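DM from R.C. (forwarded with permission)

"hey, sorry to bug you on a friday — could you get me a structure for this? deadline for the figure draft is monday and I only need the backbone to look sensible"
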Amino acid sequence: MIVKTKTLLLIALLVTVASCSTLPSGNPETQARNHFVVQSASGDGGASDTGPDDRLRLSYASPAASGEDSLTGASSAFDLIARFGNSEINVYRFKDPDSGRMAFYDAKGEKLGQYLLRNPVPDGRKTSGYGMRRHPVLKTTRMHAGVDWAAPVGTPIYAAADGIVRFAGRDGGDGQQIVIDHGFGYKTAYSHQSKFAKGIKSGVAVKQGDIIGYVGQSGLATGPHLHYEVIVNGRKVNPMHVHFIIEGQLKGRDLARFKTDVKRAEAAS
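My reply, with the result:
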């Protein structure tokens, strides 16, 4: 079986692999661009989350050699490697046992949903990372359970992924805060805002890239910035280490079949 490998510049990371359950026939490279790259980083001024080292590498079987379109046929997976800076994720196409439709999984058999933006403030400057630090206001050493992105007051803040607003109000030291529930145990929180976007309130549905509020200095803050948190199953995790929303896990025979397909894809790459 002939395998082609392409390196695709990831020009945008509003990536929604959940929308790729069915892929039209055609050039595989074009399909990867159309389905994994949703919005240009320099296109309409919306949210972007790319770096110069972000790449997609797609390995696929040539239809001429296999007698079928391996992107749309059910017999084999293809191997997509998404590289985010120094972090690399192998992504495999496999039939979802619950829906019967094609979906995307990592090497462990975890079903990959929507890509989660690491920086909801375009052109924001990272001033503080996730981990223990001395609080600039309280002057005590404590856990900093998110990432701070400095930007001028009034800079738009974008929703990191699709979801439902669960909270929009003032929350003590976090100041004006929005919490979005993305389902599957994933939430994101956006603190120290100057104001919320029109119509943003609890219960409102938002899409990835929607403007939800504006950078400010409310609460315990020494300067205008967004304090951004990612919460997974009730635990605050490092936003820079979460790339996709995990929507499920293959088990039993499905996992065994998946691992067999993964070995085939790796052997072909």
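R.C.: lifesaver. The chain is about 10% helix and 40% strand.
me: no worries. Residues 46 and 109 are 32 Å apart (CA to CA).
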